[in-house]
Design a protein that fits this description.
This protein is mainly β. The protein has one domain. It has three helices and 14 strands. The strands form three sheets. The protein has a six-stranded antiparallel beta sheet. Strands 2, 4, 5, 8, 9 and 13 form a six-stranded antiparallel beta sheet that branches. Strands 10-11 form a two-stranded antiparallel sheet. Strand 4 and strand 5 form a beta hairpin. The longest helix is centred in the N-terminal third of the chain and has 8 residues. It is globular, with a radius of gyration of 16 Å. It starts with 14 loop residues before the first strand and ends with a strand. The structure holds zinc ion (ZN). Zinc ion binds next to loops.
């Protein structure tokens, strides 16, 4: 799909891209802008990947972010780092406060090996389709994805996945610190509690520089 979405009727947003349920879309954002990831209907997880426009071999890295923050879940004020530890985003607002930066996004093997559903859609396949028409080559692997709003917690060393409790309209707002192309998958997982067994659409919204 094309990277740029329709212009919204609202003056508040420079751009808005609707991410249909179980699909993925891309959007470009520039340094100084503000990116919102919005759950339109509630209890939905989005898998976010981002690459620097000037060098897509530098990309959002959940593991580097966890390492430098020394925490499993970023909070408002925290940076989200690249694989070279460059701050790509800073969290401004977070309505949900639950995220996973440990497990990769869902992929075809997850469904075929772990669930016996080889034909099931996956975030990785959705993201690959969404970036296929990009003018530049974007490296993509499952471990590059930040599982936004994923309600995973660590209990006695085990990762426990629960249905996300957050309601429709919940969002996280990120200050954009570098020029980026961003891809978001509205996760199609309907076999486990990840999306409360009901995958739904999301939105990417871009606002101008703060102040
Ligand atoms: Zn997924």
């Amino acid at each position: 799909m094309k990277s740029m979405g329709k212009q919204t009727e609202s003056d508040e947003f420079l751009n808005e891209v609707i991410v249909p349920a179980s699909e993925a879309r891309t959007i470009e954002v520039l340094k100084g802008q503000v990116l919102q990831i919005v759950d339109l209907e509630g209890q939905q997880v989005g898998d976010l990947a981002a690459w620097r426009l000037e060098d897509p071999d530098e990309y959002l890295s959940p593991s580097h972010t966890v390492s430098s923050l020394a925490k499993l879940v970023p909070v408002p004020g925290d940076p989200i780092l690249s694989n070279h530890r460059t701050p790509l985003f800073r969290v401004l607002r977070d309505d949900v406060g639950r995220h996973d930066l440990v497990v990769p996004c869902c992929d075809p093997e997850r469904y075929s090996i772990d669930y016996g559903e080889p034909e099931h859609g996956s975030c990785l396949a959705s993201l690959e389709a969404a970036i296929a028409d990009q003018p530049r080559e974007l490296p993509l692997r499952g471990e590059m994805c930040w599982n936004v709003f994923m309600n995973n917690t660590v209990v006695d060393g085990k990762i426990v996945t629960a249905a996300p409790p957050h309601p429709a309209g919940s969002l996280i707002e990120l200050e954009v610190l570098e020029d980026l192309v961003v891809a978001l998958s509205a996760c199609p997982q309907d076999i486990s509690a990840v999306n409360a067994f009901n995958p739904t659409p999301m939105a990417l919204r871009v606002k101008g520089a703060r102040d």
